[in-house]
Amino acid sequence: NIHYWSVIWGVLGDSLTVLRSPPYVTFQDGQWPISGEKVPDLVALTMGFSIREDLDWPGLAAGSLFQRPRANALIVVRGLDTLDFPKNISSYPLENPVPFTLDSVANTVHTLFADSTPVVLQLAPSEERLYMMGMANTVFEDLPVTLQQIRGRLSQDGSVLTSLPLISLSRNNEADLLFLSEVQVLYDISALLQKHKHLAKDPAPDLYSLELAGLEEIVRRYGTDSPQFADATRILTSALQKFADDVANVYANNAVVEVVTVKTFEAPLTRKSRSILQTTNEGSLYNLAYKYDYDYAVVFNIVLWLMIVLALAVIVISYNLWNMDPGYDSIIYRMTNQKIRLD
To answer: Which GO terms describe its molecular function (predicted)?
Structure first.
């Protein structure tokens, strides 16, 4: 049987919730806080990747050396500090909720699995920020990502406007539509993943990162004591649980699904959409060199000593060839001389 470890925080404040994780990725029960800027490192460690600095956080136990999750999905929810997930889960508070991205994890996936076809999807529907890599361009080709595309999707049959009990939420209000648009994206991603279950068989791990700000607009418009906020949190909680179940099902219970809930970030996040094939030099104004990668010393030593060994090998071989006596050291000349003497 597969036992899931889940985390929800019984304390007030921003939180990190692990909705799904395989048995070989163990989260310890406790009240250890984790800083928001360390969340990308936590995601990298759950996927079996190394990080630049050790993560001094006892909430994540040492994992298996021979197994790694097939996928990791992180959903950031802005507008409240916690969601009412089932009570059979433990809690870690989130400290210093600064904006963060999983760009470093995506770059690691691209570097380590360049010959494979990983799925990397980073999406913030309300801000129309999108980054896709590998098979994501094929799997999510029909996914509505701009607000205009999502509004068009809401008007189609089978959208959340007709399948979910909206109660106090209105399809004619801008804040409500923004929230429902993000819920629709969650449902559409789940549906597309169900159609592409072969993703779990690919050797490369997949990465999903979503940022949902619709609930923040609900709070700004109606307040936290409003029936609209209560209905929105209920709908979002149910949608996130369904999303976690679908991801776990597609990857045969070999996926980690986390939810970060923050009332507000301490600083605004500005990030342009990018391509992993595009290289930029931020220091070009001052003609600065590129920053070294943390693997630079390893690669440098491998190349240096390989060149030294090859150079010494060439010198030794050349010296022996130069001082070789063809009559005694070469079997070709030896047999030739013997044949001449016989003739």
So the answer is: signaling receptor activity
Cα 274 from chain centroid?
16
Token reading at 327:
């009559």
Q: Which residue has the tokens 């890599």?
A: 133
Q: Is the pLDDT of residue 297 over 60?
A: yes
Only one residue has tokens 């970030």, namely: 265
Three-class HEC string of 193-210 = HHHCHHHHHCCCCEEEEE
The span from the CA of 109 to the CA of 11, in Å, is 34
pLDDT band at residue 341, thresholds of 50, 70 and 90?
low
Pairwise CA distance, residues 41 & 250, whole Å: 25
pTM across the whole model = 0.73
- Answer for the pair 72, 248: CB distance below 8 angstroms, yes or no: no
Count how many Cα atoms sit within 13 Å of the Cα of residue 57 in the half-sphere of its side chain. 27
Which tokens is 66 given?
């021979």
Q: What is the pLDDT of residues 219-239, one digit of tens each?
A: 999 999 999 999 999 999 999
User: Within 10 Å of residue 62's Cβ, how many Cβ atoms?
Assistant: 7
Contacts (Cβ under 8 Å, ≥6 apart) of 267: 98, 99
> Kindly report the CA angle at 273 between 119 and 51, in degrees rounded to 5?
60
SS3 166: coil
At 243, which amino acid appears? F
CA distance 332 to 336: 6
Q: Is the distance from CB of 102 to CB of 40 less than 8 angstroms?
A: yes
